Amino acid sequence: MTPDLICPAGSLPALKTAIDHGADAVYAGFKNATNARNFAGLNFDDKALGSGIEYAHQRGRQVLIAINTFPQPGRIAEWHRAVDAAAEMGVDAVILADVGLLAYARQRHPELRLHLSVQGSATNYEAVNFCRREFGIRRVVLPRVLTLAQVEHVINNTEVEVEVFGFGSLCVMNEGRCWLSSYATGESPNTVGACSPAKYVRWEKRGAQAGEIAGEHMDARLNGILIDTFAPKESAGYPTLCKGRFDVRGDTYYALEEPTSLNVLEVLPQILKIGVAAIKVEGRQRSPTYVAQVTRALRAALDQAGSSSYRVNPAWQADLAKVSEGQQATLGAYNRPWR
Predict the structure, then answer these.
(1) Which of 11, 160, 255, 270 has its CA 20 to 30 A from that of 133?
(2) Does the structure show a pLDDT above 80 at 226?
(3) Considering only CA atoms, which of 243, 283, 245 is closest in space to residue 263?
């Protein structure tokens, strides 16, 4: 059976774009700290979400709501309201990470379909089965640290549907549980919903210094910390600590993680063979153009991946290369040579 293609929707235009280009479902979040992509200008109020749900359902597609940050002391009611709102608006599932929220959702909305978020960090079938037994989850999104053999081992030992990532940015931390962002800004993706929050980002233009190419340079800072320096005409990425370039003993390079995107086109037949239920695209913070290109390419690939004659179409790779972080791709842990 062909896995569902689950695509990101950071806005109503992105939602419609994903549906129009072949997504089986989209995942979205509310305009607040309950979701892990809580950036200004992104996400949905009730009116926009209602329109999106109607648009998707009219076309036989689904809308999943990510409420995947962890409730903060004294503010738990905000997360409860998000679960209630999602259920009342008729979403097809909510994606939760916190066990307290899972318990609340199951008790308050027993008919609501529950998915365990990648932020829940369930890397083995015992953890998955615990959440099925205690909270009735129907699907788990596995962290991007498992080999395909390890994913298959989980699938073979649980009745819960398994969803894996197929394209998008990687995270050097435990799926967003970032101590770097917390250290630099005092705010974590799993508490306020944003990695390297935009209010701490500063871009500073300056002239060339000794050893640099002549011309105007761009320094990127996060809460005053220099993250990267971009030469004239060099593409500048969003300044996150993990993907910054740093001077280490006189050598400047990506000391923690190089900007790169996961791309599973080469291993799609194996993913189908082991019984993965859904393939997820990262990128709710990305543009509708990104959503269109990735959805179109993966839709075409998935529709052919079950055939013995499957070959990766260069056009698919070209489309994905245009939107890959750092203009490079990896199979990540799926092709890890060690065990």
Answers:
(1) 270
(2) yes
(3) 283
